[in-house]
Please model this.
Amino acid sequence: MKIIKNLMVIFLLSLALIAGLFFFLNRYTRHNEQPIRTPDLIGLNVFEAEDLIEKSDLQMIVADTSYMDGKRKLEVIGQNPEAKLLVKSGRKIYLTINSDKIPKVRMPDLAGKTSLRQAKNMLRANGLVLAEVIERQDPSVEDEVNKPVLDQFLKGEKEAIKPNTEIPRLSKINLVVGVPIRNDTTLLEVDWE
Model:
């Protein structure tokens, strides 16, 4: 009789444990709940995205920040899960945000070492923008094709920028290039203002 009683207790405890497990799983997975479509957050400001996520009964987590040229500061540039997927309320939406700090790059050493064509490629490769090319007649230049870079300036500055100086990415650079002396014209004066 004692064995039958113990077996009944074990059976009832097992049944209660299984029922409790199913109840817990049903509440945890929110199986009966209506799913929500994830909003499209790409291109929104992080604060606009946060408002939209809260209204959708979801949670926002900024998972990463990076810098992308052509995007606004604090713009959402990535989301996981992606837009228009069905998820349960309370789901975490992980965002990648465009940084509000423009990364710094080093100014390459162009003056006296490169031609205009090489300098254009080096500026582009270093994330810089060629603003103006200023020609200066120089007796050491023999042909129009070569055009060596004589000096490098940040646009709007009067002092030459030294190589390896850290400057914001996409800074505009003016280059002074040498051209052969022309007998029919006078030397050009460069006005930096």
Notes: The chain has a mean pLDDT of 88. The helical segments are 2-29, 46-55, 116-125.
